[in-house]
UniProtKB/TrEMBL annotation:
Domain ABC transporter, first and last residues per copy: 3-237
EC category name: hydrolase
UniProt keyword terms in alphabetical order: ATP-binding, Hydrolase, Nucleotide-binding, Sulfate transport, Translocase, Transport
Entry GO CC: ATP-binding cassette (ABC) transporter complex
SUPFAM superfamilies to which the protein is assigned, alphabetical: P-loop containing nucleoside triphosphate hydrolases
GO molecular-function terms, A-Z: ABC-type sulfate transporter activity; ATP binding; ATP hydrolysis activity
Catalytic activity, EC: 3.6.3.25
SMART domains: AAA
GO terms under biological process: quaternary ammonium group transport
Protein name: Sulfate ABC transporter ATP-binding protein
Highest rank taxon of the organism: Bacteria
Length: 381
């Protein structure tokens, strides 16, 4: 049955940190909550953990009111960005803490606690570290101890708030794969808060994208990346960049091409936004074909090529990203001029209130510009 979060609202003074947030989390699911700083991610986590109360809304676990339970009785394991390990306790004592402080009637025997600690340290691959103090561990090791400590109480829900936030880039990347595997072996329902797109897309079963206290989209990583529901998701997840597209009459006009628009209620399109991802601006296979582009600068980064371009007469530089192979193919381009194709663009149609009503992903052909734009997908408010 899992967890049913319904219409949560949290206000700080006049500021709405959570605005009507609803989300279902399946049993054993790994969900990432992704959003920029201040979007409400931690506020949501704190309410689930029992560290804060919402002003409105409900949270049910297996049909029961989770918010009515005291934080200690929620069966929630918590890991924060800054290791909250007790510095004066050894690794083993830290991991055992949650069990030792239980009322004596439900406290396991010392031998059982020792066995649990050993088992957990083996799982987090720190079995030789029982007697060390936190100051004698690396950042990544401390976070794994924090995870073992959170798991000692056998939580039904694991809440991770930027657990790798304070670690350096390489350690973060290593721990991603490790945590993903770890979750697979344990199967505990997990909510993982991060502002790092790669981290969320690589690890989670589903991603919840938040912005200004609201959920913009919930979906599988591939889905939020390929089919963003809003211009914000497109920008934040896929580095979508705005193009000078506009709807006039029954056509979408973009860089001198006009595509006929089908099944499109003008009332739904007070405004349109046309976005392109960096990897969808590709060098044209045939010289002279496609849109003209001026190369503003070029960087070679870890096997790919990142270029800033001015396309046609559009003032705003566009970022493109290619493989070295694609770049080699068009490197014959004379001086700083080349031709590019837009392989896919996303068109959002907004109503008068700025709400996205329709979205279409368009694969513009260059030889034939009479293709209709569509199909449109209705975006539910
Ligand atoms: N106790 C509080 N009093 C007043 N405002 C608060 C309080 N807690 C959070 N806020 C505000 O609510 C908004 C959401 O905060 P929250 O910590 O949930 O964001 P976040 O998405 O987790 O950000 P970050 O990635 O920076 O941690 C922020 O603008 C923050 O300043």
């Amino acid at each position: 049955m899992g967890i049913e979060i319904s219409r949560l609202r949290r206000r700080f003074g006049t500021f709405l940190a959570l605005d009507d947030v609803s989300l279902s989390i399946g049993d054993g699911e790994f969900v990432a909550v992704l959003g920029p700083s201040g979007s409400g991610k931690s506020s949501l986590l704190r309410i689930l953990a029992g560290l804060d109360q919402p002003d409105a809304g409900s949270v049910l676990r297996d049909g029961r009111d989770l918010l009515a339970l005291d934080a200690r009785r929620r069966g929630v394991g918590l890991v924060f960005q800054h290791y909250a390990l007790f510095p004066h306790m050894t690794v083993a004592q830290n991991v055992a803490f949650g069990l030792r402080v239980r009322p004596w009637r439900v406290r396991p025997k010392a031998q059982a606690i020792k066995a649990t600690v050993e088992d957990l340290l083996r799982r987090v691959e720190l079995e030789g570290f029982v007697d060390r103090y936190p100051s004698q561990l690396s950042g990544g090791q401390r976070q794994r101890v924090a995870l073992a400590r959170a798991l000692a109480i056998e939580p039904r829900l694991l809440l991770l708030d930027e657990p790798f936030g304070a670690l350096d880039a390489q350690v973060r990347v290593n721990l991603r794969g490790w945590l993903r595997e770890f979750h697979r072996s344990l199967g505990i329902t997990t909510l993982f808060v991060t502002h790092d797109q790669d981290e969320a897309l690589e690890m989670a079963d589903r991603v919840v994208v938040m912005n200004r206290g609201r959920i913009e989209q919930i979906g599988a990583p591939e889905q939020v990346y390929r089919q963003p529901a809003t211009p914000f998701v497109s920008r934040f997840i896929a580095r979508g960049q705005r193009l000078p597209g506009e709807v006039r009459g029954q056509h979408l006009h973009l860089f001198g091409h006009a595509w006929r628009i089908e099944n499109f209620a003008a009332a739904d399109a007070h405004e349109v936004a046309v976005h392109v991802r960096p990897e969808d601006i590709v060098p044209a296979p045939v010289p002279g074909d496609g849109l003209t582009a001026q190369l503003l600068n070029l960087r070679h980064v870890a096997g790919s090529v990142r270029a800033s371009l001015r396309v046609e007469s559009w003032d705003e530089p566009l970022e493109a990203e290619w493989s070295e192979r694609d770049w080699a193919r068009c490197a014959s381009a004379a001086d700083d001029r080349l031709h590019v194709h837009l392989q896919a663009v996303t068109v959002f149609a907004m109503d008068r209130d700025g709400r996205v009503r329709l979205r279409s992903i368009v694969y513009p052909p260059y030889a034939n510009s009479s293709i209709a734009v569509g199909p449109w997908r209705r975006i539910e408010a």
